[in-house]
Amino acid sequence: MTKVYLFSFLFAFILSIFLVPFSNFLAKKFSIYDKPSKRKINFRKLTRWGGFGMFLSFFIVVFVISKIFPEVKNILQYKYNLISGEYQETIFLLKQLLGIFFASLLVVIVGTIDDKFGISPLPKFLLQVIIAYCAIDYGVRIFGINFPFQNKFVSFPRILSQIITVLWLCGFMNMINLVDGIDGLAAGIVFVSSLTFFIISILQKQEGILAQQMVLSSILSLILAGVVFGFLIYNFYPAKLFMGDTGALWLGFIIGCITTVGVLKTGAIVSFVLPIIVAGVPFLDVILAIIRRIKKGVNLGLADRHHIHHILLSSGWTEREVVLFFYVVSLVLSIVVITIVSFRR
């Protein structure tokens, strides 16, 4: 799989370098520019459709490697029967991947409309729920949990499985969206996170279909890392363009899907904690934002300038210092997670 991994990362990186400027060109044609808001620190009229270039790069790479590498094609042909309680269904890895693609299309459509015209918080959240259910319908779902010391896998009832998966996917979409407040911040955190999920996936020793799920997860993680790395060339401070809600929502959705089809398939309780630790910065930011807005009695979707990066900036930090600080924090958290996984092998 080494050739697949190297090709996936490098091809994704190169494609992103070319397609992100292409999305920038399209954004100018359709006047998809950033707009002033309470969250903006130093408003600049830059395009905010870089996410479309990342989306294109990601799935072009997925399509190409599925055609030129027989091992990838074989992985996507795997299927297995899931029996949980009173229902039984067949899970196809190719179907899961198609579900991620179709749901991603919906994410891009919603994000584009939001970037162009703006969508209020409640309708946006409801659309995110629909997107999550689209992925669920194709088998992208958290099926159950493995309790420690008992070595017993407990399957979730179908409705509980759906609710947990929806909350998981929507949670990641909103986490990345909220942290996207400084040049290069969200993209850098996603880059570190995706590399960490790649390492976790290849460290996990699984048998049968779970082994194939882990390989699929590792490939998608590395493609995402390459795509985001290419995007960072244009988005690191001072940014030449923004990812917009199109990019932030899509990145969060893809991370949620990668962990769902990969890391969480081990079923262990600790597996639910690992992705949250890796995404510790945006996760903490979301929790603090929720607490802050509940105390003030305001709408949870109301934008403000009290996020962690805003606080650091108001304390005299430069944007570059804040971004690099969060990169280091994310890297440290990722090392902690990789260490935990290594000891659990």
What labels would you give this structure?
13 helices, single chain, two-stranded antiparallel sheet, 70% helix, 345 residues, mainly alpha
Overall geometric form: globular
Structural class of the helices, strands and pairings? mainly alpha
| Sheet with the most strands: spatial strand order | 1-2
Number of helical regions: 13
Query: What's the gyration radius in Å?
Result: 19 Å
Order of SSEs: HHHEEHHEEHHHHHHHH
Roughly how much helix do the residues carry, as a percent range? 55-70%
Question: Would you count the extended β strands for me?
Answer: 4
Give unreliable regions as ranges.
Answer: none
Structure in words:
By secondary structure, the chain is mainly α. It has one domain. The protein has 13 helices and 4 strands. The protein has helices at 2-29, 50-68, 70-76, 93-116, 121-137, 158-179, 185-203, 209-235, 244-261, 269-278, 280-296, 308-314, 319-344; strands spanning 79-84, 87-92, 144-147, 152-155. A two-stranded antiparallel sheet has the order 1-2. Strand 3 (144-147) and strand 4 (152-155) form a beta hairpin. It is globular. It starts with a helix and ends with a helix.
